[in-house]
Design brief:
alpha+beta, Immunoglobulin-like, 9 strands, elongated
Length: 573
Amino acid sequence: MKKYLLFILAFLCLSFPAQAAEGIDVNIRGNGTEITVSGTAASDSKVSVFVSKTVKAAEYKDVVFADEVICDKAGDFSVVFNMPDKFMQDYDATGSYTVNIASEGFEKKSEPLEYVSLKNQNNLLKTLNEKKTSAEIKTLLLADVNENSFKSMGINIEGYRKYTTLQSDIAEIIFKSKPYDAISEFQTKYNDAFATALINNSTSVSELSAELKSGGYISFVVDGTDISKDTNTFNFVLDYILKHKKYNNISEVKKAMKDGVVVCELKNANKASLTNVVKKYAEYMGIKANAKFSAYANNATMQIIVNEQTILSLPQGGADSISVFVDKFIAQLETYKVPSAGGAGSGSGGGAGSSGGIMAGSQPSWKLPNGSNSPAGGMESGVQPSETVTTSLFSDMENFEWAKEAVEYLYKEGIVHGMGDSKFSPQDNVTREQFTKMIVEFSGLKGDTDFAFDDVLPDTWYYDYIKTAYSTGIISGISDNLFGTGNSMTREDAVVVIARCMNIIGIDANDEREYSVFFDENEIADYAKNSVEVLYKKGIINGMDEGIFAPKAMVTRAQAAKMIYELCKVRRK
C-alpha cells in the first residue's frame, strides 16, 4: 500500500506542458477478474496507470493497481491486472472504480470502471443456463441490472444493444449452445453467435470489416496467417462469406472463410503458381483422394490440367464457389489423357539443382569420342527402331497410346522390362537405377572403373549398369558415397544424361529444327540448359502443352521410354 500511495503522489504531481495534446485514447475491458487497460499515446512514451475505488471526484480509496508502461513505436500500450476477487475468495470487489492514465504531453485521463465480483458473474451465468427459451435469454441480456455484470464477464453488451435486428438471432444461437460451464466458454460462444448473426445480416463488406475488427468477435487467422493484414485478401474473403450465407454457426463461417482464401489464391495465381496452389489445398478440397490426381500429382501432367479451362475460368467466369471448382476439376481429371508429346513430362517436383547427380559446369563437349568407350560394332550397331509395333505386351498402357510403340520396341530390344503381372507401370516415376539401365542398354557401353557407393552393392541387379555409367562419365552420384538408388529422375537431369551419352557414343549435335524457348525457361538449371536445347533441336524431347518443359518434374517410366526411343531414331539417321 505504501508503494501505491507513493506512486499516486508522483502521478498527481506530474506536470505537463500548457500546450498539452489531445487526451490519451483508452479502452477498458473485463474478462472475469482480469481487467485490460489499453490505448494509444506517443511513440516510446511512458504511461502511468493507477486504479482506485471511486469515492468522489479527485478522491481515491482502496487502490487496486498502479504501474507504468512504455508505449511501442506506434504509441500503443496495454496493462493487465486482476481485481481482488482473484486473490481473496471471500472479498467482494463489486463497485465503482476510476482508471487514471497519464503520459507526458497529454491531458490526464480518468475513465470509470464498474466491476461486478466473480461470484456474482458466476451467479448470472447459472441464471442464463436455467433459461428455457431464447426469448428469456434475450430479456436477460437486455436487462439494465445485468449490464455491468456482462461487461465484467468480457461481453460486449453495448454491441448487442446497438444491433437490435441481431438480438433475437444472437439469443437463439446462445440458447442452442447451452449449458456453459465457465465464463470463458460463454465469452467464446457469445462472440461466435455475434459474428455469425452479424455476417448473416450484413450486406456491406466495408461495414462488416469495421465491425468485426473493432469488436474482436472472430479470429481471422487461417493456416497460421492473419488475413486481415492484407486488405485485398481480407475484402475478397469477406465478400465470399457474404455471398454464401446464411450460416447456422461459427464453424460454417470459418469453413467459408477458408474456402474464400483458397478461391482467392486460385484467382490470383498465374501459370507458374497454379499447380502449387492446387497441390497446397488438394487434401482440403477433397481432390487428393481422387485416383487420377494421385497418379498425376507429382507429374507435369498436372501443369497442363491446371492451365486449361477449369482453373483459368475462375477469375474470368466468376465461379467463386470452392465446390464448383472441385467438381469441374475432378471432371477434367477423369476425362484427361496424357498428351502424346515426346518426353512429355511431369509437374513440379524436386528442388533446384541436380537430384540426378548432375553437377553445374558438366555440359557435354560434343566432341567425337576417341573410340575407347564406343560400343562394339560402331555407331550403327545396336538397336534400330522398327516402323510400327502391333502387339500389346502390357495390360496397363490403355491411356498411354503415345508411348506404347516406344515401350514395346524397347522391351523387345531388352532396353526396358515390365514390372510383373504383364504391367509396365507407365505412370510410375523412373528411378535413377532404372534410367541408368535404359541408357546403358541403349548405348552398349562397357566400363570397369571402381566406385564406392554405399547404396550400390555388388549383388544388386543394377550394380553393373551403374558401374558402366559411372566409369564412362554418363552419370555420377548424388554425393561422394551415395548414388541415390530409389530416387526419381528429374526431366532436366534425364536430358543431361542423354546428352552425355550422345556425346560419348558420337551422335552429333547438329540442329534438325529451330529451338523454341520454353515458357519456364528460367526454371531450367544452368547446367542443363544446353542439353535441353540440343535434345529439342534433335527432336528427342518436345516439352509440354502450353510451352512448358517442367525441368524439376519427375520422369515417368513411359516418358523415359519415349525419350530413349526418340534417341534410337536419331542414332539411326
